[in-house]
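Q: Could you fold this chain for me?
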Amino acid sequence: MRQNPIEEKREASQYILAYLLDNPDAGDTFDGIVEWWLLSQRIKFETRIVSEAVNKLVADNLIVEHQGSDSRVIYKINRTRENIQNIRTMLGKTESP
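A: Sure. Below is the predicted structure, expressed as structure tokens.
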């Protein structure tokens, strides 16, 4: 869902200012701002949002975490029958794939 143009401009302004706060000596062209600054800030924003979502899914026992062989945490669906049905309901899916 797209935001309205005023919200989009405000968000872009915040990303630019956040980048400059993190990198006070930065300077770039318009193309550089679009390609690097906004991308960098968007990735930070998305990473935070995804982290919060994953933590909530783990807390709600919808996904589980396992230690991988390389010591990184791997996330998988909690495969209990009840959980699968709860997820299908949440997503509005009633049929098996």
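A (continued): The chain has two domains: 1-59, 60-97.
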